[in-house]
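Lab meeting minutes (informal)
Scribe: AK
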Amino acid sequence: MNAALSRSRVAPVLLGLGTLAAFIALMQVLVVTGVLNKFIVPPPSDVALAFERVIVEEQIVERFMLTMRECISAAALLAIFGISIGTLLHKFNILRQATETWVAAAAAAPTVLMYPLFMVIFGRSATTIIMMGFVAGLPAVILKTIEGLSGTRHVLMNVGRSFKLSPWQIFWKIQLPSALPTIFTGFKLGLIFALINVVGVEFLINFGGLGQLINDLAERYDLAGTYAAICFVILVSVCFFVVVEWIERWLTRAA
């Protein structure tokens, strides 16, 4: 029976939904019984009722689409520049040795603190938010691209050379398809950092999107509305990762 459940596609979804429902019910009980302060954590029932108000009164669709556009722009930059730079560092070993440590250090740096500098360069605009998301996610994509390309099995490379493939053909037909799973892992990690920074900078500079909405509702001490807006941020993340996983499956089959 355990084997059947592990192969089922429905069981994990049901387990996830059941866990979420149990968590929401637990939070409701804790708030109602006073274990959690309702002036800090609103009851989930109030959050659910706030959804309609936030959608109708706070222009949630426009804000949602703005944050989505910023995230898509940051993701496109990550895919183009992150994979390209990672490939370049893998190709030229001396360049990799000179910079890889710095790239790894940048992955752990609190880049969100750089937003005043980006505002000086790009102004108080969506460009600042996009570039902050891009810079935050770039190191993860670069590092995992290097890891994926470096992990290509030597026997596959030797087979390509035995067929007299050019270095360019070996890269496109052997190295890149072999590295795709690792590259997508890095891309998803980069997206996590990018999404956090996009919403965080929207919140900090109070400029459009769901981050500004959370800021506005928090300043009004509308706790239920604030948590409802946070749920919309989670929805953005879910949408992104569903699309990325679909693209990954499509490219893996095509490769």
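Next up, CB showed the second protein from the same session:
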Amino acid sequence: MTPLDPRLYLIVDPVHGPGDPLTVVRAAVAGGVTAVQVRAPDATGRELFAATRAVLDALRDAGVAVIVDDRLDVALAAGADGVHLGRNDVPPEAARRVAGPGLSIGWSVTGPDDLDAARALPAGTIDLLGIGPVFATATKPDAAPPTGVDGLRRLWEDARALGLPAVAIGGIGPDNAAEVLAAGVTGLCVSSAIAGAPDPGAAAHTLRSALVSARPSWGTDNHAQAGGPD
């Protein structure tokens, strides 16, 4: 499996998203995206499986992890590199028991209760935290209330003891990326800022430049493992 590098983490809907999703994914990775999550909440299991396989095939030689949102069954069946879970999905400890140690498991943190749940898990159960939404977003209408940058900073400070990398998610784009990164999180998780841009490759490059400016030691290597902030 491809290790997860969460520095610039793209969420795409390859079933119902705009344009040609595979073209978007290839361009975004060429522009600097380091991980891709397949999120298609309105898709059937078969549709999500086929879409995940298509993304995996498109990125076969790119060295970029492909993650499935919510659906552990699809992630395992498709041979994805990971799954991202929230409080309404399969419990992380059950997912780890079924998947074994190789699958990357992400966990959504929308507030202190989600951090408490993460703390209660055995070590090694989860590999990544997704904190947010930071700002209001139309991409996920059922999202929790925005944390704002101050709320993000507080959640990240409370999460540091877990020793896990974390990405900020929700309404993030070129205009606020630097402010979000200043909160100390490992990386950025975006959707429409890249997938909805006229030139996804250029949009990814702009966000990647913001990341390198905030973390100069990352340089220009697209796929080095990022375990936490500098």
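CB comment: The domain at 8-217 is CATH 3.20.20.70 (TIM Barrel).
No objections, moving on.
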